[in-house]
């Protein structure tokens, strides 16, 4: 029984995934999926690669999540799971790529500039 690992990132979130044969359990930071992501939308995002490949109930997924918010973590986890399934079998790649799960979202927070309240916002202009 071989363990396949992969990594996924989104914004400030990092997901490390370990894929092994099993009964379909998804464990995140030693918690069950429904406990870690109580919102149904986020659970759906995490399970998307498994559902697209129709592999539900065949593999156990153990993940370590760090950084970012819950949405970023869910999307980082989706990317990591997709990459792990491609490592498992290269024929999975076209399905996952067509669904848009193989692309790393490059958008990051823009840095704050000096002399401004935020990255692009300016202080109120006073004519007099």
Largest sheet: 5 strands, mixed
What fold name goes in the CATH topology slot? Ribosomal Protein S5, domain 2
Going across the major beta sheet, what is the strand order? 1-2-5-3-4
The share of residues in helices is 25-40%
Discrete helix count: 4
Q: How much is the average pLDDT? A: 93
CA radius of gyration is 18 Å
Quick one: overall form?
elongated
CATH class: Alpha Beta
List keywords for this structure.
single chain; 128 residues; alpha+beta; Ribosomal Protein S5, domain 2; 5-stranded mixed β-sheet; 5 strands; 23% strand; elongated
What's this model, at a glance?
34% of the residues lie in helices and 23% in strands. It is an alpha+beta fold and 128 residues long.
